Predict the 3D structure of the following.
Amino acid sequence: MREKELFIEILKATPADSFVETTGFVDYNIAEKLGLVKFKEFRPELVGLAFNLTSKNREFWIDYFKNKDITQDLVHYWIYYNDSIIGNGFDFFESNTFDKNYYKDKFSEFGQDFEFYFEENLTSGFPEPKRLLELIETHEYHGNYSIDIVTKIAERNLKLRFAIKKTDFDSLTLLLNENGQLFRLEFQGLHTKQDDNVRCGLRKNGNLMKIDLWIKVTKKFISNLLWFLQLDSDKEVEQMII
């Protein structure tokens, strides 16, 4: 498969200490074996296939992709180095853009099958949502459950508290306890519905590492988060500000 061969060559040419972000996901057990994430108690349903590429683990990731159908793992990828994007591609498997300082003239053998563009500075990375919601901590008081979030509405940085159900409290408390102080846990608007189940996409973001998690939550929790994302006025949340 030519796409697989190309991506392996990309990994070979990518500078050490780069971060490779993809649209692929794996289940938690596989993610733990790959060293993407390790939790003591919490188990997300899916974990994003994104990793730091180092000189020590480069062969590990090359071997991993050699044994995978890459079309099932990747639809799009982004490569970051020194906080800047240097590789971007696989939207339709024929268009790929690279920072020429790192990749120029390294993919000539694939030239007949893929379109390559080389630029000095790439500016398009993973699309950011209109507003980020950072999940901070959960609370229980006499059988009532709530969660604190931080977001920016109408140019105001706000810390808000709203009620949640016990099932959400239990799972989110486990996740926030696992999260530690090195990462921010953010909701970026991603969610999916399957029958009566709702899955929420969250991102652990920090230390140059981004980990996407899919977790199971209630419809009420998702609807509240989506409501916060749609607000244009901070007056609508005055009673929630803490």
Q: What stands out?
A: The longest strand covers residues 184-194. The mean pLDDT is 88. The helical segments are 2-13, 28-33, 58-66, 70-73, 100-103, 166-179, 219-230.
